[in-house]
Amino acid sequence: MTVFRAGAATDVGRVRSNNQDSHLVHEGELFAVADGMGGHQGGEVASSLALTVLTEAHDEPSTATLVRAVRTANQAVFDRAGADPELRGMGTTLTALADVDTRDGRRLGIVNVGDSRLYRLREGRDLEQLTEDHSLVASLLRQGRITPEEAETHPQRNILTRALGIDEAVAVDSWEVEPVVGDRFLICSDGLFNEVDEARLTATLRRFDDPADAAGELVRLANEGGGRDNITAVVVDVLAAGSEGDTAQVPVVAASDGDGDAGESADEGRSNPAGDGGPAEGPTSGGAGPRFTWRVALFVLALLGLVAVVVGALTWYGRNTYFVTIDDDEVVIFKGRPGGFLVFDPTEEERTGIAADDVPADQVARLEDGVDQPTLAAAEDYVDNLREDIEDEEPATAEQDGGPSSSTTTTTTTSAPDRDGTGGGTAGDVVGDAGG
Ligand code: MG
Fold it and tell me: Is the pTM above the cut of 0.70?
């Protein structure tokens, strides 16, 4: 169980008449900011309704459930806007952080729609914005059509490209990150980061130990900077991480479906589509554990299959061939490779009864090196031919002592284990499994 300490602050600002931001610090496991917009009371209704529904619908500690809860909240705001003419056109951003359980341990699930932000301040690192803004300005910036300086003062920087309540379906960005003791997260509405630059956000988050104090000071700074919008800050500290001690160093493999973002950060899995308006990909992150495990299993199986094939082939090569040679002044058929191969020593298969002295002179050198034959039958044919050559060449000798032509063939039944057949069979089975 990840243990958090959180504090929040919100303010209407110095220009607006009502505060349409809502925030949530729920039972130490779900934290969120929603920045409502539209109409008279619409913005307030949209942001508070979204967080109420999110809390109810997030009934399981998983990122997939968190994403579904955001969709449920979207539907609720959309339905409400359609049912009440005074609320027509209302919508809200939603950025949330939740303690989630995965097969690889505790993680922090993050979801985002709109331009509220989640930042992380980690020991020894700069402040990192983990969410991606769904705003016109952010799109222009990503496309390189405006500079970061132009973005800060762009007249249309309030225009969102995604929000809850606008359509029946909504694309939800989601991420999972490792909880590391000492990490401090900031969830905030644009009323904060449009008034306070990142250097001051960082300095303030570092200066105050108590998250509530940090949140309060951030809101004060935003008002000091102009307070042109509602301001909300939720500060969340990770006090203890994981159920099996500190799992901070366990790497996470991204579950991303090849959108190119997977490799950008070794310790985080992100599953959102890179661009705006893409289909919601959130639930895929929930499948990170099983998919990762299955891929590893397949990989190991394929590797074992490959090893078995190689061992089988080597065994076949080392054992399942024959050669004819001269041994102890006699022509003998051996099973294996001349001189042995790897761990396989040749074994005697048949002694032919042909004396080395009777072998035609031009064949002695070849036989001494060993004459390879693919099968026992081929080796026996070779020996038969050799015997005929000898009989053709030296009939007189054969008549004299009658010995060499008597062809007393001794078959030696080798007691070597039949590894070839076993090895080949195993290889075939494993490859079949891995391929299927
Ligand atoms: Mg705002």
Answer: no
